[in-house]
Amino acid sequence: MNTFISYEKDQQGMVTLTMDMPGRSVNVINEEFGEGFSEVVDRLATESGLTGVIIASAKKTFVAGAEIDFLYQQIDPAVVFRMVQEMKASQRRLETLGVPVVAAINGAALGGGWEVALATHYRVAIDDPKTKIGLPEVTLGLLPGDGGVTRMVRLLGLQAAFPYLTEGKPVTAREAKEAGLIDELAADRADMMAKARAWILANPKSSQPWDREDYRMPGGTPSSPKAAQMLMVAPAMLRKKTYRNYPAPEAILSAMVEGAAVDFDTALRIESRYFAAIATGKVAKNMLTTFWFQLNHIKGGGSRPAGIAPTETKKVGVLGAGLMGHGIAYVTATAGMDVVLKDVSKEKADAGKAAIDELVSKRVAQGRMTAEAKAAILGRIVTTGAAEDLQGCDLVIEAVFEDRGLKARVTQEAEAQIAADAVFASNTSTLPITGLAEPSSRPENFIGLHFFSPVHRMDLVEIIVGKKTSQQTLAKAFDYVLKIGKTPIVVNDSRGFYTSRVFGTYVKEGCNMLAEGQNPRAIEAAGLQAGMPMGALEVADMVGLNLAVHINEQTEKDLAAEGKQMERQPADAVVVRMVKEFGRLGKNQGTGFYDYPKEGGKSLWPGVYDLYPTAAAALSQGEMIERLMFIQALETVRCHEEGVVLSVADANIGSVFGWGFAPFKGGTLQYINDYGIAAFVERSRQLADKYGDRFSPPAMLIEMARTGKTF
Amino acid sequence: MIHEAYIYDAIRTPRGKGKKDGSLHEVPPIDLLVTLLKALQGRNGLDSAEVEDVIIGCVAPVGDQGADIARCAVLAAGWDETVAGVQINRFCSSGLEAIGMAAEKVRSGWHDLLVAGGVESMSRVPMMSDGGPMLGKPMVSLDINMVPQGVSADLLATLEGFSREELDQFAIRSQQRAALARECGYFKSVVPVKDQNGLPLLDQDEYIRPDANMEGLAKLKPAFQQMGDIGFDAVCLQRYPTVERINHLHTAGNSSGIVDGAAVALIGSKEKGEALGLKPRGRVVSVGLIGVEPSLMLQGPGPASKRALAKAGMTIGDIDLIECNEAFAAVPLRFMRDMGLTDMDRLNVNGGAIALGHPLGATGTMLIGTALDELERQDKSTALITLCIGIGMGEAMIIERV
Questions:
Q1: What CATH class has A315-494?
Q2: Is A237 touching B (CB cutoff 8 A)?
Q3: Interface touch B231/A237, C-beta < 8 Å
Q4: Catalytic option among A121, A326, A450, A640
């Protein structure tokens, strides 16, 4: 008998199955679970005097989901198909035992866990915000293949099931009750078990709705006119969001619709076939690599220096109450730390706090935060114009204007007030950290914490280690970033660090193609088709064309000072012309590559079409897409080669979380794995021949191709 | 030896508004066909046993229009039981395809006399009632960039740079020409529809809006904006990356009307006609058929017409009258550009589907009859009939009076 599902029969003939996987904090669905589950169902089938079954968990959660490791290794669709079909067979036997089966959901029931619950006749859940319910498979490039698609469609209908399956957002037990996913809410475990028993006694002959003669699919089957509208529109709605880069939601929709047209067991089989294709496909592997394994590695401290005891940041000073400053103050206070928000005057600092008030008030109005939580957050933030108030801060983060003199002044001002072991961090996005640390009296305590805007929504923080930054300081910064619930990547000091440097190549390549006379709209479409969140020209506008010119000039000066010459690209002249010839400065000013009218959406400035003579031959979208993606991947390899970004995980996660690099590719380095290292090198050479040296493959990559290594 | 395919007759019902308040809504579609088969028989003194097959185009062949409506109509009309019947579907060109198939059967020498036609009661069997793989298998819809036709029409207008005014002006022209033709009795091939008592149900086209004007048309809302916003614009933009946005210009006023109606034609060999004493009205010169990019979908008439012309060894200059189906105003306008036509003197001279309506399966046959009527009235010789077709096809046929 298996060791992780206990089997207890009471005097009324009710069997309670309690999932309690040994040596783990949560129950997960894996191969052993499948075998154990199958054994238990076999025993139930032969149990004499069985009156009902309750499936419960001894852990804090019901089932956290499926174990990814095994699935990640699978490359043979036949194996995956057989595996899920076997799992489904046990579930099917359970729901057709002829006695009532109840899921007692005491905590999160996600993915494969929710699929187990779906195979029961009645679901009772504890009414607690922590009881998360849903099928997040799609977010990892997978589909719910253990009956999740089939049963959700049968339960809710095609239309209502669509968002749960294709968006993967979990809901609370209460929301699930309203949606008809949960049948009854319970106050606590005892109440839940009592309700489960009561339902079994009251419903001795229960079955699944879809196994009854009178079953009608809510909203109609695909052949009914009622469903026609949804069936016509759903594929277009999907591709509007996915650009056909994500096979999983397409497979989910397919399994939903094709399955809804046939009987239940055939539907389960159709679902298994799509699952086998998706689970062994490239996109799922890319996404699992990065958003499961690498992200877990990072969150588990993968880039944190070893051997340093955990640190705890208690009081944080934030210098500058502008957009970035008050954003940092907000997320810090939300994580339970005290914050001193300082600007040149208390009034300015108060304005920053008012902006935070607005953000949290909105959340309260949306019902996503309690009034008490709002009061607590605001109560933790003290505003000031006086440096003395920074006393007692163990971390100070400056978010003042990008000006070396100003930054030097605030550094010294703060250091005069804070303890010798306190950390001083700069939220610069452009200025090298080592240089900024020069005015510091404690450069070993100086570090870069590059937040992204808007701070409360962007999940990434790029930690920049200067030449003199100590490992202790890095550990402290790392722990702080995890504490505010963000994802830290660690990079070494370099111009533009990692994210800005690589991200800049995307924008430049778009401008390069414009300078070559390619259609501007086609360039933008290529970026979007490639999976980037915005077209390159739109991003350029957002960053600011005048800022781009300014950075270019600064870089050229800095390099000249080092006796180096800046590598010129046609893009440089494009932005200079936009700014100096046409006075188009970027989105902030309402004029850039696009026009931004007050009413209605943006549209490309007609003048963009006339900036350069139209190229004799339009590049294919495929070629443009590769240029835009290769240039980022290649720059990442250079960063990796130069030791700017040390880990593959940091490079991949940084690219997706930092600037939205195509998630389905799993990040800039995983993009190369996906392409195939040797093929990527070969293609880079071709692009270099056509478009210039910036596409030449770095030595590291050539070596990897030679030795057959991957990132 | 080649057997010329002659058109001995081509008749149609009037087009009734395709709604509950339309005059033909109460008439099952089979009765429209029965009316026409009986009229065809009477007009030509035809022994139905001489007819070998009845080919009927229908786009939504389910419900009232299901179960091989052609064979059902043959028997319901009291025709000889030896007459076979087949229902075909080439979407909007089904009625033209039926004539083409009949002509090809005659030219092959394997058949001598057939009826070709089409029927669609859009008020009773709404568009899309027949489902299809794009609804049943989402991957098909994704792979072929499926877009509703109205959004395709707006994409076409966007790519061609047509303005709302141009489209509306074309619609007005259609209304005025159709109204005049009805008033003057140019639609000679119309057969009134009556009930079982002989009481009239509809004796002429009822969809025409003779008083349509630019101010009125300008007030109409774009009909396909919402579909576009939901996601179909995105499908178009992903397929046509140089397009920044779709201009939604087509409205209920400059798109074809939803109507009920049917049409049939009698097609046979020269020899058979002579033997039966039938008087030919025209002959099928050539056909052209083509598939085109399916998300734009409606650009087929130009290339299809070029094929038909090439097969006939003719140029567009040799054609006296042109019928290009007005599925949407952008379609004939794009067709003109494709064919290098600079004026509309020969095009849709008695209006088109914007004014008259487009009973999907029947329209192709109706246009043959309309063209023959007008060739005879003007005493001209050749006509080109062409239609755009769903999922990206085009069909054209050249006919000539004999």
A1: alpha beta
A2: yes
A3: yes
A4: A450
